[in-house]
Every structure is written in structure tokens, then in C-alpha cells.
Amino acid sequence: MQKGNISVQTENIFPIIKKFLYSDQEIFLRELVSNAVDATSKLKTLARKGEVKGELGETTIDILIDAEAKTLTIRDRGIGMTEEEVKKYLNQVALSSAQDFVDKYKDEASIIGHFGLGFYSAFMVADKVEVVTRSFKEGSEPVRWICEGDPSYEIGTAERDFHGTDVILHISEDSVQYLENSEIEGLLNKYARFLPVPIRFGTKTEVEYKEFEGEVAEGEEKPAPEKIETEVDNIINNTEPLWKKNPADLTDEDYVSFYRELYPMGQPPMFWIHLNIDFPFNLTGILYFPKVSGGLELQRNKIQLYSNQVYVTDDVKEIVPEFLTLLHGVIDSPDIPLNVSRSYLQADTNVKKITGYITKKVAEKLASLFKEDRADFEDKWPDLGVFVKYGMISEDKFYDRGKKFVLLENTEGKHSTIEEYRERISANQTDKYDRLVGIYTADEDRQHTLITAAQDRGYDVLVFEHAIDAPFLQALEQKEEKMTFVRVDSATPDQLVQKDEEKENLLSEEEQTTVTNLFTNIVGTAGTVEVKPLDVADAPVQIVRPEFMRRMKEMQQLQGMDTSMFPDSVQVIINANNPTVKEHILAKEDEGERSENATHLYQLALLSQQMLSGPDLKAFVDRSMKMLG
Asked: Binding site annotation covers 165?
């Protein structure tokens, strides 16, 4: 048995730190299984080139646990190593056999993973590592290499009657969970689920029920089906995942079935995009549009990132734009750098290209769906709307594409593109500053009275009830020329679209002062009071929330800021031209009756916006009954 020291040099240790310094201990299994896959793929490549004599035989990779011996073995039947190669690749830490192989077989390098040096991650969970290997080369002898986590090693002969490599981990006391079947199977399902070489983890029992086929005498019950249990190989992975196949060969059911494989508990997706590009970078994958509907519960970590079918992460926010993290599915690209810092990812040119490509493909898919079947697109809008609006807010390029298919819905259920909406409201909703004024409601039920008042003036009222709509409206105002939006409760109906018209005030200055003082005492600190000449038919008292102040508060709330110290800013508008003000307030000589009537009108305005409750509501009802006799 020879002894020696592993060669660790300063010029080669830094690439290891940069590429393979993992924060998650469990990553060791991904690295070792990936190495086994690489070794098997290399052997298949050589066989295709005629450099392997005889049959390849079985190429399945085995994961073996020996709880008594406290070992975990990763066994492949791949290319194997000679003693010289063991010394070269295991004792000189920074030399990657994968890179050597890529250099030699550049034309077929796409099958090679980028995890060649991950072998040393084994020492995160093992206090001793054995490697038993035999090269595929004719006449090669088996070799055993042993290292106990320091620069010293042993190398000698071994027994092995087939080519390939066993990596035997002697699990350390603080990592004994990796000797449990459930733990290892969970990690294999996570990291090896779609590797291109079969991964076997023991066996499993398949149950089949065989129906009774004989004759049953009259009056007798048919025997129960026979239960047949069969022990079969427990193959962990799907070696040919859907995203690696030609889209032309796939059906809708294939895509839906694969979605169920990825997300067994999820609702069926609305539709999907199959990504397949090999220039100027390599990228395959399938992105699904899930149903997101109601609240702003943005489901992160639903896109899985792979590199040559090796699972990397489900945290892809550095690779795809934030709004695309609403999607589900798989992205597979060998061109995305792995095991490096997020800042490196953000600066990487390939990542930027991939981000732009995915954004473009998503926009093209949505545009084609809108163009091909608008009715179906509108039916899906409750689920699509959040996604499209989020994208338009966060990505300028997506805004430019999305404005052609984003839909604005009004209170009558009619959908319009931005351009269609412009044309529809231009005649009646252009203000004195030549701006188009979009009027909207945030709650159709609560604001029904205000919506009706706006519609009576011929205004089209949009529905913006989702949390995403506040920033979306701001984006529209910033991007769309001469366009602004106001909520139905932001002004009196006649002032939602400001015109140059001036109405005559039917109250004298003294009467206006009297009314102002009276209502100021009633309203107190709940808001400000203003007497304005409105249409005679408009309500005598109206409550509005100035658009700017309300919207600013909503944005602060959306950002998680505490706004409890800033009460709602409301204005109480007294209609100087409504005869009720003169007849039931100013005409009353008794101060008590005048104040009581004014309070009733104020409470009526509160009630119209569902802002009246509790004792105030009871007092209002009692007063109303009294007035009715």
C-alpha cells in the first residue's frame, strides 16, 4: 500500500472555494451523484466513438446504505479510473477530470456537467472516504483510494469485476441522518429527479389487483380481486423529462401530466410556454401560467432551475425578472453560472440575455393568445391580470409589449385595451387640461351610489379592486401621454372631470359662512368642510377623499409602512345649490333644529359610503323615522 500527500496548491484552491463552497450540507449528494452521471455519460460518448470494447452492460447508478457499517455508497458503472488517473484527479484537488474530458471531446461537451470537483463535498458529512474504481480500459486493475479528511491518503489494489466507481462515505457522528432511507430518498427526489441516467435506490413494492376470471355459481358472491405484490427496482428519476423533448411531438395532456408530476397538489395550469433555444445561449424549459386570481399571494420558488438536468435551486429571482417568479415550471441551462454569488449572477451577460429572452417569449405567448381567441383571454383575465400588471410595473420592455393586451374592465364587465379605452372616453372624459380622465372604483358594492352618479353623467367607470392596481395606475399615468385616473369618491360627480364651466352660487356669502361654521362643528376633526355650487339635483352633502392624499397613503400601506398616525383625509362638500340646504337648515330659526337637520344630512352622506355605524347609525335611523312621522 502506497502512502502520500494530496497536492493542494494556492493556484488551484481558490477556484474550488469560488465554485464549490456550499452553504447547504445536503448538497454533497447532488455533487457525488452528478459525478456518477458524468462518468456514465462519458462512457456512452466513448462507446459511440468506438473507443469502448464489448458491450456497455447496465449503466444504472446505485445508492446504497449500510446502516450497520455507517456507510453511504454512490456506485456507477461508468468510465472508471486507472491508478494514474486516481492520483491525478483525486490527489491534485484543483484538476477537474470533467474539464479534461471536455477539452478532448469538445464537440460532445454538452453532455458533461459542471460538478467535476464536487467530490470533496463528501467530507462535509464523512470522516473517511473510500473510492474503489476500475477503468473501462482493457487490462485495467481495480484501485482503492482512502482519505480521512486531511492531506494524507492511501492508495492500493482492490477487488472489482466491473468498470466504474464506488464512492463510499463513512458517515460522521454529526451526520447520521444520511443513513436513513427517508432522508436519502428525499434528497434524491430533490436533486436527482430528472438526471439522464437511471438512479436506483433499493427496491419498492408494486401492488396490482387481479380480477377473478372464473365462473361464479348462482347465489354466490364473486371473489375479491387477488392482491399481487411485486418487488421492483426503485428508480428515482425520469431520465427523459418533458422539457428535453420536441414540442411538436407533445400533446396538451403531456404538458398537463408533467405539471402534475412537478406539483401534485396544484390546480391545472391555464397554459404554458416551451422554451428551446441554442443560440446565443443554451436554454430549455417549460413555464406554466398558474391561476393566481384574488389576493396578492405571489407564489415564489415555483420555478426550478436545472443545469443539464441537475437540480440547482428554486430561488431564481436573480435569473428571471421578479414578476416571472409568479410562473411555475422548469428552466434548464448549462450557461447559467452555478455556485457563485448573487452579485456575480446579476452581472453575468448570459444571465441578462436569458432574462430578456424569457420575458420576450412570455410576452409573445400572451399576445398570441389575445389575438387568436380574445373571448377566452378575457375569461382568463381574473387570473392573468395580476401577472400582466405586475410585469408592466416592473419591466419597461414588458410594459411596451403588454400595453397591447392588458385589459381594463368597467363596472358593466366590458374589457378594453388601453387604446380602445382612450377612444371610448375621449369625447366625454377629457378635462380642461386636455387630459383623458379615467374614473374607477375600488369597491363596486360600497361605492354603488357614487358609481351611479358618475354613470348618470355618461362617465365610464373602471373596476380596480386588486392591491396591484394602485402601482399599476401610477405606471399608466407615467407612461401614457395625457392620461390620469381618479376614484369615484375623490371629488363630487361634477368635478371628477374638471371643465371650465362655472356654476352660480345660490347662497350669499353670509349664508355660506353660516353653513360652513355649522358643519365644521359637526364634522370636527374627521375632515374639512367646503361649500360649493353643484347641480341642483346633486346630493346636499357629499364626502370625498382627495385622490393625491389617499393614493399616497395606499402606496405607503403597500410598502408595509405604518400609516396609523395618518387618519383618512376627507372633505365634506356642502351643495350650495341644493334647496334642502336652504329649506331645512338656513330657514330654521331654532339653532337646535338647524344643527339636528345638518347632522342628519351629514350622516346620510356617511351612510351612502357605508361609513356610518354603531350609535351614530341608530341615531340616524331614529331621526329618519321621526321625520317620516
From this structure: yes
CA distance 549 to 446: 20
pLDDT given at position 623: 63
Q: What pLDDT, on a 0 to 100 scale, did the predictor assign at position 620?
A: 58
- Count of Cβ atoms closer than 10 Å to residue 536 Cβ: 11
Range list of H helices, 395-546: 396-402, 418-425, 448-456, 469-479, 509-523
35 belongs to an annotated ligand binding site: yes
Tell me the C-alpha distance between 494 and 503, whole Å.
11
CB 311 within 8 A of CB 193: yes
Do residues 623 and 491 share a domain?
no
Look at residue 553 in the predicted model and tell me its pLDDT: 67
Spatial distance between the Cα atoms of 60 and 53, rounded to a whole number of angstroms: 19
Backbone angles phi, psi at 441, to 5 degrees: -120, 145
Q: Which pLDDT value is given to residue 171?
A: 95
pLDDT on residue 96: 47
What parts of the chain have a pLDDT lower than 50? Answer: 10-22, 94-98, 101-102, 105-116, 295-296, 340-342, 628-629
Residue 300, marked binder: no
Q: Which domain holds residue 576?
A: 509-627
DSSP category for residue 151: S
Contacts of 108 (CB under 8 A, 6+ apart): 45
Cα–Cα distance for residue pair 519/586, rounded to 1 Å: 12
* Residue 174 neighbours by CB distance under 10 Å: 9
To the question of whether residue 31 is assigned a binding role by annotation, the answer is: yes
Instruction: Give yes or no: residues 13 and 160 share one domain.
Output: yes
Helix (H, G, I), strand (E, B) or coil at 379: helix
Query: Which bin fits 285, alpha (ψ -120 to 50), beta or left (φ > 0)?
Result: left
> Measuring CA to CA, which residue among 410, 446, 411, 429 is closest to residue 495?
429
Count structural domains, the chain. 4
Strands (E), 372-422: 408-409, 415-416
Q: Provide the pLDDT for residue 63.
A: 97
Same-domain pairing of 11 and 133: yes
Strand partners, 383: none
